[in-house]
Amino acid sequence: MNRLQTPSELENLRKSLEAGRDSSRTCITVCMGTGCSASGAAEVTKSFREEIERQGLGEQIGIRTTGCHGFCERGPLVVVHPEGIFYQKVSREDVAEIVSRTAVQGEILDRLLYTDPASGKKIIREKEVPFYRKQTRLLFGNNGRINPTSIEDYIALGGYSSLGRALFKMKPREVIDEIKKSGLRGRGGGGFPTGRKWDSCRKAEGELKYVICNADEGDPGAFQDRSLLEGNPHSVIEGMIIGGYAVGAEEGYVYVRDEYPLAVKHIEIAIRQAAEYGLLGDNILGSGYSLAIKVNRGGGAFVCGESSALMASIEGRLGEPRFKHAHATEKGLWDRPTTLNNVKTWATVGIIISMGAREYAKIGTEKSKGTMIFSLVGKINNTGLVEVPMGITLRELIFDIGGGIPDGKRFKAVQTGGPSGGCIPDTMLDLPVDYDSLKEAGSMMGSGSFIIMDEDTCMVDVAKYFLSFTIEESCGKCTPCREGAGHMLRILDTITRGEAEEKDLELLEEIGKMMKVTSLCALGKDAPNPILSTLRYFRDEYTAHITQKRCPAGVCRALIEYSIDGDACTGCGACVQACPESAISGKAKEPHVIDGKKCIKCGLCLDACAFDAVKVS
Amino acid sequence: MMNADLIKEVDRIVDLYGGRITGSIGMLQDIQSRYSYLPREALIHVAERLDVPLSQVFSLATFYKAFSLRPRGKHLIVVCMGTACHVRGATRLVDEIGRKLDIKPGETTEDNLFTLEAVNCLGACALGPLMVIDGEYYGNMAPKKVESVLGKYSES
User: Predicted ipTM?
Assistant: First the structure.
């Protein structure tokens, strides 16, 4: 493979690769993101290869594995091009028929199509599925079109041409101005204006500067960074090189969670391929600018997503946050000027350079420009990743795109921003989603995870869950976070056991406010958010636990009891089999009873019963 | 395991990272994936090679959750406790696995067959509740499916 020496060589390569991608040729793409892979996409791919071989169709039909399409709930996903016929929940048994009937004869297999639950209609093309229709897939659009381990696929679709333009047609100053004009704000959650960050790093004194990609995506419920790294790693690298050129960096690091093995693999392959083509390393595209990028794997510590802790970790030290007397843009990694951005931020850079800041800034709201990738998870029909313009309402996100709540249950709240965010109630469904309105509502954008909760979710239990998470992940360096969170958890614990008093709620608020002001880093400062926001919007539920000793959602074990409805019970004995404590007894074909003294409230009988006879009160 | 072999292997891994403290977390990861935990002798040798106090290497090995100082069982069960899995009943899942194997998260069964770990989020939220055994994903897990899944590993 020849190193590319000039931007025109890159453009020639692109043209020849594009010509090689015959768009009229039949091609079957299989999503190989983590979601689809776990649902059996690898087996499906293997079967396709074998079947195409078996039918001797290797010349006519191509097969391509792609990154995540986002609609993980319906995986494995298969698209037959050029028609774009979209099949979901495909299994090995469907493969032969897809090849012989759809790929060869153009026939559509009804049973594999997606059915719109609202209209009951079968939908043929991916982009017509309601889940996709309201999306603006700037970052994610190519995930389904390229093989993430092939740089040629990326280049064929115009990849690295933004880099060429930045290096040869723009001065570093102009790149920064363009990013400033686009209004791009940090997609890791903080929302700091990216252009301003770059500017101060550029101006900082120092021979050696660094760019870092923060891919330590630790927020439970967030997997957008993983999907981008797995599905389109070159877009992240291209952004980092452009950013490195703008701020004057010579070295770059991608700090990625070790829990994401596929993302690690794909980013490493991408870095190697880019270097082979001369798009990374010394004298990139003959421009005279050089940048080397290395990959660092995390060690399973959530706090390392915090920028100063992350840098400490790259240095080989404990991932403890530092007090920021100087910005990382001046004194970051090894005390040298450093620009650290999130995966999504870096991936957006190339898009802005290619479409222009003015066009980009037309998307979104006044203060939050562009698109954001959200994860929709929890009690929602269409679990997955969606990319939408900033300013979309919660209602559109959850009901129009997410398809609402399963099993006809009622929507109760959405938790945004991970353990640092808050819960937003149903009365605020028309809230536009952007950095500032979420903050006003007592939550935050964070990494963009949206956890949907229905009527069966206990908000005190949720608050306790997040706080337990924070305590486990707190590094323990500063007292407010270490002790404050522990004390709050003890109070929440007494509430869920029905042993708290009403004045404890005030104490919770007092400690929470103290932590917000005095903690060292954002982990401690934002840790009280889940509690403070649920106290704000769901105070009744806290009160019910305290005064009536009742958990309205039927979750908190100390406050609930299991019983069997004698009328519904058929005496089949399934619950007796399931009970680990032998707490259920009864004669065959007669109603059974639960011994409350032996019952540990594990809920296994509830799962086992086919007649809905086990009740929680 | 011969001690000399271990020293040789640790040397190889340390060299891979240029023998500098910067690469220490990567070194520990590689050692752990080779031996399934961080053997005491390996930590001592890493400290010697990097010319830092053993306490410094030990602090890294205990701060970062991915590391284990005890040998792990033949099969590693990882249960996702992320929010999406939590609201879909991950606690009941991990309870049931713990009951069946008579261990708590972080522990290994007496016969050394299974180690159970509860982790924060595996980022496959559409599949929740989710457990992963030796890299194999089991999505939409219900407590009642636990016995049959574990059975597949008990025989081997």
Answer: 0.89
